[in-house]
Amino acid sequence: MSGTVGIAAVFLFLASNLLVGLFGRRIPGDAESFVLGGRNLSPFMLLATMAATNFSAFTVFGLSGAGYRLGWSYLPVMAFGTGFVAFAFLLVGMPVRRLARERGWMTQSDLIRDRYGSPGFAKAVSAALLACTLPYIAAQIIAGGRMIAAATGVPYEVACAAVASVTLGYILAGGMRSVVRTDVLQLAILVGGSAAAFVAVSANGGLAAAAERLSVLSPGHLSRSGAGTGVSFGTYAGYVLLWFLADPMFPQLFQRFIGARSDRSIAFTAICYPIVTTGLFFCTVGIGVAGAATFPGIDRASSEGIFMRMSAQAAGGGMAAVFGLAALAALMSTLDSQILSVSSMLVKDWLPGREGSAKPVRFAAVAVVAVAWLVSLRPPATILDLLTSTSFPGYAAIGVVFLAALFAKRTGITPAVAAFATGMLLVVLEASGLLLVPGPLPVFFNTTAQAAAFGLAAVPRLFRAKGAWRQDGSFPSPAIPPAAFVIILVSLAAGLDFWAYGKVVTVIEGLPAWLWLHLALGAGLPFAVAACARVLSGVERG
């Protein structure tokens, strides 16, 4: 991805994002309008910004690299696993939106502070969320700088500055409104570029030819358990649980629940989300699988370049540069949302008395971007790798605490603190290598330990007066109808296809038979999500 075409493509991309972000701007003076867009995100705009925000450069390079190394077995991890998160959007997003509007919340810590009446606990949760999120901002700028430097030949430091300054420019201009407008553009480029690359690659022999070659070269690429290190059933199930707990806790996604216009916006987003994940991830993983048949023997470190290599072979270097903008779009759509959410958290959670104005949030955004850019000049790879590797488990541990805060009606702060402390301690110990948890992923162990800590801390309340069982204060904890649990569990059981492991692979139209099942699940999951939304009875009319 270099030369004149690369320079022109990157310039037009950055310029178009800046223009879209600045177009029709009206700089909000109050923090709520700046950060939440007036709590008026429509169904379509919420879907576009949620999808764009949740897809990073990993969607393009990481997934195609995983497809190259592991085969089609990685697609269900992302397609069904991430699509299943739509149920969490309903369970968490709907009650959070209503309560946030009623009680004036702007950040996740507001929920904890309101629920338990403890500013100290709220700050602890905020600090954990910031620790999980801040490294990603620097990592996104680093990745964007490297991509632009490779595409254009400009110095890496200048490329990092271009990513940071363009993103910061439209954030300062319009806050959430500018971010959402650019998210629509970035999602279109991400989906369009990925789909176009997949079509070009498929036309060069097709999936059937790739499957035929792989059945000889590496049958594991077609099997349910995968090639190389593979994707065992336990690993797959662990990822589904990890995404379910972690994704709604991303500050940039949680803030969009708060900013949604209505429950209908959240329901629409949840219903459509599995369609987007299945279609987009099929393209990027599929390019990697085709690459394994075309260019066997690439080492792990270079495998994430297979997207560009296959695109260049299929359509030429110039078009590969254009297709590569999909990754840059995904990266920036995550970066801008993270900057805005982190800046609002720094002001709202840590600078009391200044949270009413947008000006401190803008200053915080400038500071965050400046620090992230300075880090990008000499990226501490080891530290960043450590922090980003702990972020998903950290978010998942925080997710357990938020589920308890929302739905555990009759427990006080002690069980929540016990679950939070247990989760954070385990994440730190596991990341540092001081604790080795058996099994494919630590999320099962961590969640079980947190639940046990929560339950043990709640036991003493059993021996108190009956009146002590009432929920703390006047916090209106929502309820989940049993029918919603049934729908979610049935959908989960359908997706956890343990019976497909160890079977002889049958290829139908270039795809393994077991994969057709998951594509069907991706098509059917929206109907299950819609049914769950109706059961939760929170979808507003009009």
Quick structural gist:
This protein is mainly α. The chain has helices spanning 4-22, 31-36, 43-54, 61-70, 74-83, 85-103, 108-116, 119-152, 156-174, 176-203, 206-217, 233-246, 251-259, 263-294, 300-303, 306-315, 317-323, 325-350, 358-377, 381-407, 413-432, 443-458, 482-495, 513-536, and strands at 507-508, 511-512.
Task: List the topology elements.
Blueprint: H1 4-22, H2 31-36, H3 43-54, H4 61-70, H5 74-83, H6 85-103, H7 108-116, H8 119-152, H9 156-174, H10 176-203, H11 206-217, H12 233-246, H13 251-259, H14 263-294, H15 300-303, H16 306-315, H17 317-323, H18 325-350, H19 358-377, H20 381-407, H21 413-432, H22 443-458, H23 482-495, E1 507-508, E2 511-512, H24 513-536
Antiparallel strand pairs: 1-2
Helix pairs in contact: 1-9, 1-10, 1-17, 3-10, 3-14, 3-18, 4-14, 5-12, 5-14, 5-24, 6-12, 6-13, 6-14, 6-24, 7-8, 8-9, 8-18, 8-19, 8-20, 9-10, 9-18, 9-19, 10-14, 10-16, 10-18, 11-14, 12-20, 13-18, 14-16, 14-24, 16-17, 18-19, 20-21, 20-22, 21-22, 23-24
Write up this protein.
- This protein has a single domain (4-23, 57-379, 472-536), classed as Sodium/glucose cotransporter, CATH 1.20.1730.
- The protein starts with a helix and ends in a 6-residue tail after the last helix.
- Helix content is 74%, strand content 1%.
- With 542 residues, it is mostly helical.
Please tag this protein with its features.
single chain; 542 residues; mainly alpha; Sodium/glucose cotransporter; two-stranded antiparallel sheet; 24 helices; 2 strands; 74% helix; 1% strand; globular
